[in-house]
C-alpha cells in the first residue's frame, strides 16, 4: 500500500530546486553553466583532432561496411543478385518476354 505522507519525485525535485535557488544567485548559475559547457569531456568542441580520430575509428570499425571483409561483401552481393526481382533465374517466361521486347526494339530490326 502506498504511503500518502511521501512526496513524489517531481515534488522533491521542485522543493530541492527552490531551496537551492534561495541560497545561490544568478551569477553562480551562470558560472557553473559556463564551466560545464567548456569542460565537458564528452564533447569534441575543444578538441577537433580527437573528434577526427574518433570519426576515423568509427568508420573503420563499423560492422556495416565490407572494407575489412571482402568475402562477406561478395556473399552479400551474390545474395542480392539472386534475390533481386530484376533477375530471370526463377522466371524463364519473364526472361523470354524481355528478350523478345529487346529484340523488337533493337536497331538491327531483328536481322
TrEMBL record:
What Pfam families does its record include? KGG (PF10685)
Give the span(s) annotated as Disordered.
1-111
- Top-level taxon of the source organism: Bacteria
Stated name of the protein: Glucose starvation-inducible protein B
Q: Where is the composition biased (Basic and acidic residues)?
A: 1-34, 47-56, 91-100
Q: Which PANTHER family does the record associate with it? A: CONIDIATION-SPECIFIC PROTEIN 10 (EUROFUNG) (PTHR36569:SF5), PTHR36569
Amino acid at each position: 500500500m502506498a504511503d500518502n505522507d511521501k512526496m513524489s519525485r517531481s515534488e522533491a525535485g521542485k522543493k530541492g530546486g527552490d531551496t537551492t535557488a534561495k541560497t545561490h544567485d544568478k551569477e553562480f548559475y551562470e558560472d557553473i553553466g559556463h564551466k560545464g559547457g567548456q569542460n565537458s569531456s564528452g564533447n569534441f568542441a575543444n578538441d577537433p583532432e580527437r573528434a577526427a580520430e574518433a570519426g576515423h575509428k568509427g568508420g573503420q570499425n563499423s560492422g556495416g561496411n565490407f572494407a575489412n571483409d571482402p568475402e562477406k561483401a561478395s556473399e552479400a552481393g551474390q545474395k542480392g543478385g539472386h534475390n533481386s526481382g530484376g533477375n530471370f533465374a526463377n522466371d524463364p517466361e519473364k526472361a523470354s518476354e524481355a528478350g523478345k521486347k529487346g529484340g523488337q526494339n533493337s536497331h538491327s530490326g531483328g536481322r
